[in-house]
Design a protein that fits this description.
By secondary structure, this protein is α/β, with parallel strands linked by helices. Helices cover about 30% and strands about 25% of the residues. The N and C termini lie far apart (about 40 Å). Bound molecules: S-adenosylmethionine. The site of S-adenosylmethionine has 20 residues, from strand 2.
Length: about 200
């Protein structure tokens, strides 16, 4: 079988053709609950592979002032630039680009079906990049699939054992357990993670 290149062209063609089966059409409930408990609305937050950016839209609604979203696909980023124009430069930065080339320092990075979209060979680089983008007391939170999809294309799943072995090179694993409030089709198949970069 031909190797699939999960690059800008690949993702943009999915967006152009509305092949976005992953799209929940709303903020993922475990992430919503986490955001609801954050008191400091001025922390720097990054959402990579943001897609339609429901998580960011919810943060903006809550009044967060320093949100950055990045996606590699120009089509969805174009939509976001129009939709969220009123927030840009005030509460929000929108970046069209490759997460692995992004620079910045964040208090919080949010994982929502981005890790599973990447070629498995990039997982180690993902972990290192996440660490480099976080402040020393920052945190990576969000959801990872706890299921093997067994397909040669995204989403690529995994399990807790694999993720612990991968992340504990660079992060303290404060929490990694089955999310109890996932959307119905994903219930029981997602791990909620809270990871802190090792000093
Ligand atoms: C499975 S979708 C998830 C979108 C969104 N997080 C959601 O849950 O609806 C993965 C997203 O990551 C983007 N993406 C893939 N590789 C990327 C990269 N290297 N840098 C930034 N975005 C990327 C894709 O364009 C796509 O929008």
């Amino acid at each position: 079988m031909m190797e699939m290149s999960l690059d800008k062209l690949f993702w943009d063609s999915l967006w152009k053709n509305n092949l976005t089966a992953w799209d929940l059409k709303k903020v993922s409930p475990p992430i919503k609950d986490y955001f609801d408990k954050i008191e400091n609305k001025d922390i720097a937050i990054l959402i990579p592979g943001c897609g339609n950016a429901y998580e960011a839209k919810y943060l903006l609604e809550l009044g967060f002032t320093n949100v950055t979203i990045i996606d590699i696909a120009p089509t969805v980023v174009g939509t976001l630039l129009n939709e969220l124009d009123a927030y840009i430069g005030k509460q929000l930065s929108v970046v069209c680009g490759d997460f692995f080339k992004h620079s910045g320092q964040y208090d919080l990075i949010v994982e929502q079906t981005f890790f599973c979209a990447l070629d498995k060979q990039l997982r180690k680089m993902y972990v290192q990049k996440m660490k480099s983008l976080l402040k020393t007391d920052g945190q990576l939170v969000g959801l990872l699939f706890d299921i093997d999809f067994g397909k040669p294309h995204p989403p690529f799943g995994g399990n807790k054992e694999e993720y612990v072995a991968l992340f504990n090179q660079e992060f303290a694993i404060n929490y990694m357990e089955t999310a109890t409030n996932s959307v119905k089709p994903r219930l029981g198949n997602e791990l909620w993670i809270e990871l802190n970069p090792l000093k």
